[in-house]
Amino acid sequence: MEQEKDLAPVGVDVSKAKLDVALLRPDGKFRDKVVANSRKGFEELVAWLAKHGVTTAHICMEATGAYWEEFAEFLADAGFQVSVVNPAHIKSFGASLGARSKTDKADARVIARFCAERHPARWQAPSQAVRALRALVRRRDALIGLRTQELNRKDVASQPQVLHSIEQVLAHLDKQIKEIEKQINNHIDQDPTLKEQSRLLQTIPGVGDVSTAMLLSHYGGDMRFATTRQAVAFSGLDVRHRESGTSVRGKPCMSKKGDSRLRATLYFPAVVAMTKTAWGKAFAHRLATAGKPNMLIIGAVMRKMVEIAYAILKSGKPFNPALHGA
Predict the structure, then answer these.
(1) How many C-beta atoms lie closer than 10 Å to residue 284's C-beta?
(2) Which fold has domain 2-118?
(3) Could you give the angle at which helices 209-219 and 294-315 cross, rounded to 10 degrees?
(4) How far from the centroid of its chain's Cα atoms is residue 158's Cα?
């Protein structure tokens, strides 16, 4: 802990295009910097820290969307201590400070103070094998997105020349999607850890090749979360409650503070699980009996799938129907 206290606390407010950085000095004053959320920006930030005499630091950021991941991985590879914090914790901490301003610069300063006072746990970067798999999975998703766009254009196209062009593009995309899927399967098969984890995940009824690859791209390799609850929060499938005093009673909803691609990929497997598998039917039936609406049930099944998947990866044991009412 003493070594952690000696590290310079740095808060970073992450957005799609830029990083607002706040370096908290020992005298309590801040040094602020804005860099691009890109490899060039990351290198510029490290050079800026070195200019201020900082070569080792504890750098904190919020887990918002997927914009922080490449940045956090770069910092971890460069030897910095990195923490990725639940935004709700930062918000509560800011409120305790009486923070009134809501700007990117002010947010970065709040994060830096949180880092200095709370010493949040170190974030563990995924292995290179998992990073490569995630890149392949994302490329596959991008190609499928392009294919969907072309299919939509085909539905409204009337000119033969346009239809011919669209069909050519679709044929090329189909070929590319098959090739990237082959690369994904080969990558998993060539890594002993991912191969065994893939085998374990596919013992879950309702989980197929696509959802297995997506789950491994986020949770594969070394177990980076202490609990299944943390793994669920990483996906944005955790429940957010809105209650305050006696007047505010909002309906609980999905936080969505995580990778939207993971949630989108799990949607159809969840539907299959709750309609075609014994464990999914039993779980959905309990919720339906309690009067829960269909969309809430689907979200709950998605969340349950992540819980089951991470528990299986952590234990190294295949799916056990007896543990899930099946």
Answers:
(1) 23
(2) Nucleotidyltransferase; domain 5 (3.30.420)
(3) 60
(4) 41
Per-residue pLDDT band for 315 (boundaries 50, 70, 90) equals very high
- Which residue type sits at 107? D
Sign, CA torsion 91/97/98/102: negative
Q: Tokens 């594969």 label which residue?
A: 220
With a CB cutoff of 8 Å and minimum separation 6, the contacts of 243 are 249, 250
pLDDT of 4: 52
The domains of the chain are located at: 2-118, 128-217, 226-324
First-to-last CA distance in the chain? 46
Q: Which of 4, 2, 1 is nearest to 81 (CA)?
A: 4
Residues 6+ apart with CB under 8 A from 167: 154
Contact 11, 112 (CB under 8 A): yes
Phi/psi of residue 119, each to 5°?
Answer: 45, 60
| pLDDT tens sequence across 113-141 | 999 999 998 998 999 999 999 999 999 99
Q: What is the DSSP letter of 133?
A: H
Distance CA 143, CA 130 (A): 20
